[in-house]
Amino acid sequence: MRILIIIAFFIGLSTVQAQYTVKGRINLGASAAEGVTLSLLPTNFKTQSNAAGDFIFTNVPGGQYQLKASAVGSKTVIRNFTLRKKDIVIDISMEAESATQLENVDVISKNEGVSGKLRQVEGTAIYASKKTEVINLANLNANLATNNARQVYGRIAGINIWEYDGGGVQLGIGGRGLNPSRVSNFNTRQNGYDISADALGYPESYYTPPTEALERIEIVRGAAGLQYGTQFGGMINFKLKNGPIDKPVEVTSRQTAGSYGFFNSFNSIGGTVKKLNYYAYYQYKRGDNFRPNSHFDQNGAYIHLNYNFSDKFSLTGEYTYMHYLAQQPGGLTDKDFNADPRISVRDRNWFKVNWNLMSLTADYRFSASTKVNWMAYHLKAGRDALGILQYIDRPDPGGARDMMADTYDNYGTELRVLHQYKLFNGQTSTLLTGVRAYHGLTLRSQGNADAGSGAAFDFLNGEPSSSQYRFPGQNLSVFTENIFQINDKWSITPGARFEYISNEANGYYYKIQRFVPNVKINESKQNGRSFVFFGIGTSFRPAKEVEIYANISQNYRSVNFNDIRVLNQNARVDSLLRDEKGYTADAGIRGKLKGWLSYDLSVFYLKYNDRIGSLNVKSEDQTETYRFRTNVADSRNIGFESLIEADFMKLINAESKYHLSAYSNLALIDARYINTQETAIKDKLVEFVPPLLFRTGLSFGAKKYDVSLQFSHVAKQYSDATNAEFTERAVDGVVPAYNVMDLSGSYNWKWFTLSGSINNLLNEKYFTRRADGYPGPGILPSDPRTYYLTLQVKL
After folding, report:
1. Could you give the CA distance from residue 130 to residue 552 in angstroms, rounded to a whole number?
2. Which of 119, 139, 137 minimizes the C-alpha distance to 129?
3. pLDDT tens, 262-287?
4. In contact, 346 and 387? CB cutoff 8 Å
5. Beta strand pairing call for 20-28 and 92-93
6. What angle do CA 180, 182, 184 make, to 5 degrees?
7. What is the C-alpha to C-alpha distance for residues 285 and 279, in angstroms, rounded to an integer?
8. Single pTM value for the model
């Protein structure tokens, strides 16, 4: 890190002779605008705004200038200014299809809120008519060091959160009644490319970018499947920060200490040197859980390099590294949890993750109306789980532990072309088309391992004693969407996607015999299929700040290899599992009221056919009960979602230097199993679906300080399809309703920011998950009241 700082320092010295800098940000509505062409007249200087909407001109002599901003589908804006004695910042707000020239200006600032939505067109993606949400992290007062999901996703409607990881190393969220396990029901991306273990065969995310490094989080619901692939939940994209555009070096250091030995050190460096923008971070995090037999250590690093060869062509390279080792305290029975959630009855469970992710992205603009984006990425990673999988209502049996070892070696590439053209009386329509190719390879081994209590991730006798498989997978996709802008108020957006998917399994497993030696069985499977699915949406704007939208889109989720072959004493898998199919429909209204209130009210219908779930089944000899994973039934989820945000100080005085903001986030969901002959689950509630989620918050502050209070209520839910209220082994049963409150505050003075938080302010005793395997089995208690303090220095 010292070397990077020194190098950047001397690079910065070389730019001292530059004259002046003109920089700023393009905004369209509540979102930043990427790819806007900016011309500095009368010179021939040109540039384009980046993904955050930022632009910069360097080495500009003093004088009088015109700054011209133009983009197809938006009005052309011209700003007149005089450049003398100092650099200048010019922020530009653009509007669709209008031609108003703004007056002379020197500096304009725009204060975005915490939440927002994506524009109809962002980069080379189309979001018209879709339910979209954006979290702007720079404006969020929350515990970022622990990635506190309650606070970070508090404004996202219908999100169910699993809270069992006090350090925030792994994220578990699901929307609209979909399983929150490691974000597996979202198409999960970082800066546009996949970060899950295997997007086809095992779409779980063991790596989550640190919130301190994020610029924003983008979420697109089920209709995202047309552009991003087969996930009912939609797409979540973690957009990491770029280096600042107005300085060669900026260094940020954040040091956080907290309850139970928590310590987090996050350090970043970034800047812009001529045509090169760079950003890098290193993070070290450690801590203990409030329960014994728990500790984690995490190291993470990231580097981003973007070089603008011209105003038309740029190239970006990124590398991400994360290593994580944790001891896991295991699950609890209901009896143990009610008596004391702080206890642990497992001391030999460990978990390890090693993640390496590389990407290369090229952007080229043929003209103001046509641009191309190409990206390629490679994941080289692995995860090992070591411990005792026996039910938690019995003692550790001792002896060898069970180990599951995965390695992931995935490659993907995606090409997108976006073209804007005139149609219907000169209205601007937008065509997006693209192609994606993907190859994933997972090596999975399971068997007996070291009988001790340490983190010794080695199979006994050097060979997995339960199973060993290669799971190769291939995917080829072609997709297209088009925004037909009928007039200045109404648009229609149809789309289609073709998918070819092939999953294979090659390896062996040992069939467990009761009275004779286990039998080794070699196995080879291949499942190739192709299909086309469609969607259509529409948007109507009766007023400038009001939009009515609706869409319907087919969805698809393939059987993954985790469903096909995993040996778990507590579970069995149906060998005849089928892919899941269905569709999602959305309709809503969103907008703003006089700059002080924003709202998004919507309803949805999610039809899920051949849904994969778990049933409690008796063994053949009636001596054991186990979970049987199969296509349990069709399901349908109906819901209402709302987010209302208001800044009452803006209502009183639009120019007030203070803010007093509040938000209310409500989701009502009815999710039930239908079309099934299984009387045990017919008309039962779908698991992991709280019928009511309510989160609200209040924030007061000014430029230098902010205090925020947030409250969350999550209603009672079930952990299995039969809606079992209680089982002795605690794998299935009810997850009771709970209420949690969080308090955060921050104060900024020059280069320093001091912030702190008290999470679970009222010390609620609760849990959000029952696990049938790692890191349980059983109830996984959530954290009691915890305290955190952060000191940030930015130079």
Report:
1. 9
2. 119
3. 999 999 999 999 899 999 999 999 99
4. yes
5. parallel
6. 75
7. 20
8. 0.88
